[in-house]
Amino acid sequence: VETEVPAASITEQYGVDENSAMGAGFSYTEVKVPGTRLLPDGYGGAMGSSLLVSEGELPVGVVGFAEADVVRAAEALRAGGAVVFVSPGVEVDSTTARLVNQHFDEQGERLGRSTAEVPATFVEVGPRWGGPAAILSSAAAETADLDTVMVALVVGKDQVSKAQEDEINEVLAGVDQSASFYVERGYQAPDETLIAQLILVALGGVLMLGGTLTATFLALSDARPDLATLSAIGASPRTRRGVAAAYAIVVGFVGAILGAAVGFIPGIAVTRPLTTSGGDGCVLEGGGFCQGVSDQVGPFLDVPWLMIGGLVVALPLLTALIVGLAARSRLPLVARLD
Fold first, then answer.
1. What are phi and psi of 116, to 5 degrees?
2. In 3D, which of 220, 268, 271 has the Cα closest to residue 242?
3. Which of 131, 285, 293, 311 has its CA 20 to 30 A from that of 221?
4. How many CB atoms within 10 Å of residue 104?
5. What are phi and psi of 230, to 5 degrees?
């Protein structure tokens, strides 16, 4: 990382070693509180371990908490305790947590088990938490006889380009199969979505341009006597072109605004079924009560303002420019008949 991104800030992240201390197999540690279900419902090891170790503050990669929770967590770690994450709605009436560590061989046979009680502060997380199960201080890890190792490197925000990410992963592939480098860039639209959007923009642009030009030139044909009159009283070609462009702007803007208004309502309505997932399954319990088995995610609404602005504002202006440049500078004089 230092070779490919020399200016990046790199923080070493420590955590509980989840490889077996006995040389083979694996181990894992559960965080429990007597009388309370597993804390939290779900967690992940994207930071290299499901139990991170930090001194005095939350690790740099663990974010998204209120300032009051961050302060409480820092105080707990400085006091030699642990910060345990709990799911929404879970009430914990305890000041300690139990760390249960189990060792297994490569065949899954348990080799050993150990437990330890450590002082703990409990912090609520969101319903779809994917971070670690807990943050331990070095003192808490030592009390539970857990091996602490460097499990990850955290690189500063917005300091790695896509090309640098690819180069780092190429090098890592030759170092260790299990090593990887991931840059969180927020939601990235898949290529299929971008292609579909470009097709929609192109199709909408062609239809709108064709319709606007057709309607504008029909209107200009009806207005030829008026344009001829302007010419007869000395109007310059620029004036006649301005009148023609004004026709195009009016026709284009009216059509674009009406089209956007008509499409807005079904566009918003269709986001609910298309962007909502989960929350629709259930397990029948005693008495016929349906208990949901997954959290509902969505709906999400992201209005493509740039696309709409291009079609509603930029395209009518482009059409007016085309009409203004293509309008005839000289018209044959016609006689008005009353």
1. -155, 145
2. 220
3. 311
4. 17
5. -60, -40
Beta strands 148-155 and 282-284 are unpaired
Give whole-number Cα distances, 319 to 198, 215, 240, 301, 330, in Å. 20, 11, 16, 31, 21
In degrees and rounded to multiples of 5, residue 299 shows phi and psi of: -75, 160
Three-state DSSP state, 151: strand
Record the tokens describing residue 34, joined without a space: 């007597």
Pairing mode, strands 96-104 and 51-53:
unpaired
> Strand runs (DSSP E) across the chain, as ranges?
10-16, 26-32, 51-53, 82-86, 96-104, 110-124, 134-136, 148-155, 282-284, 290-292
Taking the C-alpha atoms of residue 337 and residue 303, their distance in angstroms, rounded to an integer, is 53
Report the C-alpha gap between 109 and 103 in whole angstroms.
8
Distinct helix (H) and strand (E) counts, the chain? 9, 10
Give 138-180 pLDDT, tens digit per residue.
999 999 888 888 988 888 888 888 899 999 999 888 888 778 8
Confidence label for 135 from pLDDT (cuts 50, 70 and 90): very high
Q: Which residue type does 197 have?
A: Q
At 91 the three-state DSSP class reads coil
0.70 exceeded by pTM: no
Residue 246 carries which side chain, given as an amino acid letter?
A
Please, is 329 exposed, middle or buried when counting C-beta atoms within 10 Å of its C-beta (0-12, 13-18, 19+)?
exposed
pLDDT in tens, 83-104: 999 888 788 888 899 988 887 8
